């Protein structure tokens, strides 16, 4: 049952307002909002579950179990961000269900939650990268080395799909509106089989 904890938490928070959630015209789910809602992110509990941390404790405050809910509601490191979130949403109870209901209440409240998630998760991710890069980090913590994304993407497209893949030249400089230069990153180019 522990493995389904986050799925249960998310479903329990959204299910009572499912119609409103699905029918909303505003509010994009960003990467970091999704991390907080799902519990799959730089949380000690999740990192321990996927065997990237030796234990589930919080690196910020030392709490025994660093979950998404701990980050949202309890961790002392995020008091300032939490005060700003409560000020805009008017929510005293920061349970996931209360946050979801607030997000659905107005675009301003949605943006406040998204801003909280962005600020907090970006800082947690930065700290995680620093721990991974540390010379004395145990092997479990170190950033995994391996193939890049392009070879995996290329191999996922098969001859059966009617396409072969090749990589484009990396970072071509182009001109956008108002003569602003921007870079086109390397990408996968789909070419029909001959």
Q: What is the string of helix and strand elements? A: HHHHHHHHHEEEE
Structural class: mainly alpha
How are the strands of the biggest sheet laid out side by side?
A: 1-4
Gap between N and C termini, in Å? 51 Å
Number of domains: 2
Q: Please state the overall shape, judged from the principal axes of the Cα atoms.
A: elongated
- Total number of β-strand segments? 4
Radius of gyration: 21 Å
Enumerate the spans where pLDDT stays under 50 for 5 or more consecutive residues. Answer: 147-194
| Helix coverage percent | 40-55%
- Largest sheet, if any? 2 strands, antiparallel
Number of H/I helices? 9
Give the integer mean of the pLDDT values.
79
Residues in β-strands, percent = 5-15%
